[in-house]
From TrEMBL:
Matches recorded under Pfam families: AMP-binding, AMP-binding_C
InterPro entries for this protein: AMP-bd_C, AMP-bd_C_sf, AMP-binding_CS, AMP-dep_synth/lig_dom, ANL_N_sf
SUPFAM superfamilies xrefs: Acetyl-CoA synthetase-like
UniProt-listed GO biological process terms: fatty acid metabolic process
Identification of the protein by name: AMP-binding enzyme C-terminal domain
Organism expressing this protein natively: Popillia japonica (Japanese beetle)
Record-annotated AMP-binding enzyme C-terminal domain positions: 416-491
Lineage, uppermost ranks: Eukaryota, Metazoa, Ecdysozoa, Arthropoda, Hexapoda
AMP-dependent synthetase/ligase domain location: 5-362
GO molecular function: medium-chain fatty acid-CoA ligase activity
PANTHER family per UniProt: ACYL-COA SYNTHETASE, ACYL-COA SYNTHETASE FAMILY MEMBER 3
Family: Belongs to the ATP-dependent AMP-binding enzyme family.
């Protein structure tokens, strides 16, 4: 069975006649099943909603209910879990045969007839392709609706900027429910006709690798532990990586300068940093042929416009535009519009426009409206600085302390707090992110225990938390305190809390 046959099976299982644009959730491993399922959903005219095995059952059920999914596709590996989700959400279920992946993984030439299928181009030009869930400062995760036009824009700008070709081979080690793993590392090579290795890298002719800073940090630790005492092996690794790979990319979280420098020492590669979000794909990147400086995320990608703004304190959604930068067909034009001190670097909230920017949060018009300015710019919520010397942007941090970026994931501190407060021994808590070289930010929970609680076992808490939240949301550190300082309105000043923890 190929993508065409699976597409027919998806359509038949939905049994919706000629109704298109149904939401189809899918949970597959990092192998051919994932790609075939994604293609089949699109070929049959529906909207793909990828799930993650890192997420507990209650979160998967939230995604199914929130997206109004009509079908869930999975493999035998996850069948037991997804059967429970399907039953509780009253959603149809399709479990793929393991032979599908085995057949697709064989290195046989692909026939043209196997690739034929799908609907008319006009349908895809006007239709939504995917819903990816992302955390916000309040409430449950929101479904980011990406159209086929959004995806094509995001893919083509990266192919142009990062010099993709059909001769490339990428080693894929990223999550496939995240824009980094889906767009940058999977759809780009598929679009250009390059090779993507999702399992054991038996093909050593890798030319492209992408990862989050946490992965590079762990590779550095492993290199130091296993190879640092063997000078010949150290030289062999550096020579091989430098000569065989043409591009190594880091993103989804700030890259510490120490990691950048150590990886250059190990591999001979200056990691290419870029910046993006689920809602916009990638919007800034260091140029391929540039001399990369650690901490800088580059310039707008082709077809993308960005600006730095400062909020005007007039009670309205008005901004002072400090700088605007646009990339038209590879030519970047940056215009400083308001800067009181011409010698200082402009600093403001980064806002984005372009065909890469998402359509809406699914079924949440008010939340969507709040994330866009009156004149149509998407508010990233990140504070950025433009270097007049380097002529590049860098990210200084989030406007909101309630968004934590840990291990490449964007995590809502409030959502984690809500889960922790359900623990029978916990009376109050505050969750913050502290700077960390391995994780970017590590999640720290300050916890107040209920009266008469004699003991609190961290290991037991972690086991309890695993059934309620994704592993990357579980605090790396828990501090037991007697009370959490709050102001007269009962609010926690998290900026002061972080400063006190770092003191």
């Amino acid at each position: 069975m190929g993508a065409k046959e699976l597409s027919n099976e998806v359509s038949q299982t939905l049994s919706e006649g000629n109704v298109l644009n149904q939401k189809v959730l899918y949970l597959c491993g990092n192998d051919a099943n994932y790609t075939l399922t994604q293609w089949a959903i699109w070929m049959s005219g529906h909207i793909a909603v990828p799930l993650s095995p890192l997420h507990p059952q209650n979160l998967l059920e939230y995604y199914a209910n929130d997206s109004n999914a009509k079908l869930i596709v999975t493999t035998s590996e996850y069948a037991d879990l997804i059967q429970r989700v399907s039953k509780n959400c009253k959603t149809k279920l399709l479990v793929l045969d393991d032979k599908l992946r085995q057949n697709a993984s064989q290195m046989n030439p692909v026939k043209q007839s196997d690739m034929e299928g799908g609907l008319a181009p006009d349908f895809y030009n006007k239709s939504n392709a995917m819903i990816l869930y992302t955390s916000g400062t309040t409430g449950q995760p929101k479904g980011v609706v990406l159209s086929h036009k959004n995806l094509v824009s995001q893919i083509t700008c990266l192919i142009d900027a990062w010099k993709w070709s059909e001769k490339d081979t990428l080693l894929h080690t990223l999550p496939l429910h995240h824009v980094h793993g889906i767009v940058n590392a999977l759809l780009c090579p598929q679009y250009i006709g390059a090779k993507c290795i999702n399992t054991n890298p038996d093909d050593r002719r890798i030319s492209v690798y992408m990862a989050v800073p946490t992965i590079y940090s762990r590779l550095i630790t492993e290199h130091q532990k296993v190879f640092s005492s063997d000078s010949k092996m150290v030289e062999y690794i550096r020579t091989t990586l430098k000569n065989k790979l043409r591009l190594m990319v880091s993103g989804s979280a700030p890259l510490p300068a120490t990691v950048y420098e150590k990886w250059f020492e190990i591999s001979g590669h200056k990691l290419l940093e870029r910046y993006g979000m689920t809602e916009i794909g990638m919007c800034l990147s260091n140029e391929y042929d540039s001399d990369r400086t650690p901490g800088y995320i580059g310039v707008p990608l082709p077809g993308v416009s960005v600006r730095l703004v400062r909020k005007i304190d007039d009670g309205e959604d008005n901004y002072l535009n400090l700088l605007e930068s646009t990339n038209v067909k590879g030519v970047v034009n940056t215009n400083i519009t308001n800067n009181a001190d011409s010698e200082s670097n402009p600093v403001g909230e980064l806002q984005v426009k372009g065909d890469n920017v998402f359509r809406e949060y699914y079924n949440k018009p008010q939340a969507t409206e709040q994330e866009f300015t009156i004149d149509g710019w998407f508010k990233t919520g990140d504070i950025s600085e433009y270097s007049l010397k380097e002529k590049k942007f860098k990210i200084l941090g989030r406007q909101s302390v309630d968004i934590i970026k840990s291990g490449g994931y964007k995590i809502s501190a409030l959502s984690v707090e809500t889960q922790i407060l359900e623990h029978p021994a916990i009376a109050d808590c505050a969750v913050v992110g502290l700077k960390d070289d391995e994780w970017g930010q590590k999640i720290v929970a300050l916890v107040v225990l209920k009266p008469k609680t004699e003991t609190f076992n961290i290991e037991e808490f972690n086991n309890w938390a695993k059934s309620r939240m994704a592993g990357y949301c579980i605090p790396k550190e828990i501090k037991i305190i007697t009370s959490i300082p709050k102001n007269a309105m009962g609010k926690v000043n998290k900026k002061e809390l972080v400063q006190s923890l770092c003191a």
